[in-house]
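Work Package 3 (structural annotation) set out to generate three-dimensional models for the target panel prioritized at the project kickoff. During this period the team completed the workflow that converts sequence records into discrete structure tokens, so that structures can be stored uniformly alongside our sequence database. As a representative example, we reproduce one entry of 249 residues exactly as it appears in the project archive.
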Amino acid sequence: MVFETIIIVVVVLYVLSSIKVIDQYEKGVVLTFGKFTGVREPGLRLVFPIFQRMIKIDMRVRTIDIEKQQVMTKDNVPVAANGVVFFKVSKVEDAVIKVQDYEYAISQYAQTALRDVMGGMTLDTVLSERQKIGDEIRKVVDKETDQWGLDVQVIKLQDIEVPDDLKRIMSRQAAAEREKRAVIIKSEGDRDAAKNLAQAAKVMATAKGAMQLRTLQTLDGLGPTASNTVVMALPVEVMEMFNKIAKKK
């Protein structure tokens, strides 16, 4: 009787230890005597100890940092860059069977891809095309890691550092570019103003009474301040009379 009780207790404990819970965001890879025998979906599942072993895999999107890498650009400028990889497991059996540590593997491959991609670009492209660089790295990494059951969602560059002496040169270059644009804008404004003044002079020369009206507007703009004194060498009418005499001659 005691022996039978012990057997029953052992069986009950064995069955209880076989009950496994898989969360909604997980999947389980089951190995029976070391051989892959199936994938368990979320929920209450039976995995028999001694004979079977289950490895749970998180199916959510994960992030891995790309450590800072020293890169020599195409135009021989040393820069340092780091980034972040967003990926998730798409095939749990491949992630367990085909690669030993998929997180470490994708991290190392992303570092290599970052150096290769940035090494084929000039400094100006590296500084202005972060999104393009991230997309190029993602294509390279995703193509290789697809056989590991991984899906690379996106790769983003975080920081791109250049040497301090180059920063000072770039700052002076940017200041020179801004000054150049300011000079160009000012010269274009002077040109447009000169054109407008020439056109206004033609209108005033052909329109009768335009000069008198302009003179009155100028006097009115001076305001009623007592300190303003206006001295006119010749009245406008006298100047027009001289102009008519000159035309007749």
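Strands lie at 19-22, 26-32, 35-40, 43-46, 52-58, 62-72, 78-89, 150-161.
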